[in-house]
Amino acid sequence: MELAKETLVEQPRSTSVKLSVKEKVSYALSDTACNLVFSMITMYLMYYYTDVAGLNVAAVGTLLLIARVIDAFDSPIFGILIDKTNTKWGKSRPWFLWLCLPFTIMAVLTFSVPDISDTGKLVYAYITYICLGILYAGINLPIGSLLPSLTTDSQERTVATTFRMIGGQTGSLIVAFLGLTLVGLLGGSNEQLGFTLTMIIFGVIAVCMFLLAFKNTRERANVNGGAAVPFNQSIKALLPNKPWWILTVVMFVTWTVTSAKMANTVYFLKYNIGNEAFVGLVNGLGSIAMIAGLFTVPFLSKKLSPKMIVCLGCVVGIVGQFVLLASSMTQSITIVIIGTIIGGMGSGLPAGIMGVMMSDIIDYGEIKFGVRAQGLLSSAIAFGVKFGMGIGAAISSIILGAAGYVANQTQTTEVLHAIDFNFVIMPIIGFVLMLVCMIFYKLDRERDDIRRQIEQKRLDEEGGQFES
Q: Whole-prediction pTM value?
């Protein structure tokens, strides 16, 4: 009788599942949707504010800086809210459903500065851009916090991250090739109208993609049935977590220099190279090259640790920046394209592995400190992206303003050198700082053992639930 009773006990299910292509693509669409807005901000918002809306470049720099100070609080707050979320859909997925419409509406409003007084324009820009940043934290952070709940399988996480980053870069690619083209087609000589209509189109597409991501993904590796994690417990998994601090700094540096470079692409080609018509092509080829780099990550991860993949990407990125330095000296668009392709491939390597590293850090926090605070810990990604994005754009605009930049005028030698620094030199500094940070990242040595412990813990937890 006892044996018969045992045969009726359902066996615990492993969370180390193989994800379907449909689920991976749907997961990737969440980042495609984010980047349809995010890339418009990084590529064109500073240009839109200065050359279309007519805002002073120094005032724009201050706006971007203040907005990022606010982001020092909103990303961790959303991380805590995700940890406290407990719905039938999980912790992370519901945020796609709740915020997709408010996020895209605010994006449209951000690129719709009205024709009012200079002070009124600036106030409007402050309100819309800061609100957009807050909503971006709320809808982007769940993309990272969702990954460790999809599966505990290391290779599947790597592949899912690659899908995500390719999806994100596809969004960037659409914006790079079609952004300014749509602005011109829809607005004609009225760039203001063109930017607004373009954001409406991208916004509608983004909402559809967020809803698909919500519908077709599943959270499996939840702890305690997905119960809320108290804030004081979340802090235990954050403050002493050295790998988390290192990755947070790396993400901040990465997006500081990436934002500065992307924001200055238009200025570099317009004033330093003298050929603004190639902006879309250069941005597009950079995105394609980054996608090519992302494709190599699952193969490299079988031979190299995440730390070594990041370091390899930094070295390739530095080479690409030196090629761009040569293009500035020769004013050759061909060399610009070559440098952009090399740099894009280099940037694709760290981008393709960062999500996996964050999942490792979340697992590490659970095993080391007994708390799985995936929302708060994942806020490192959102915080680093948003804060770095704003700081990079702010610093570059301040540098341009100090050099004497005046929109739509022949620029002085000092301004051209400032653009060179923002577009070429600052990213080199960033890559070097990332290499230094990676010296102190040691989690690679423990990741396989931590994975085994996590998988066994899940089996034990589910086994106990079934027996009870």
A: 0.71
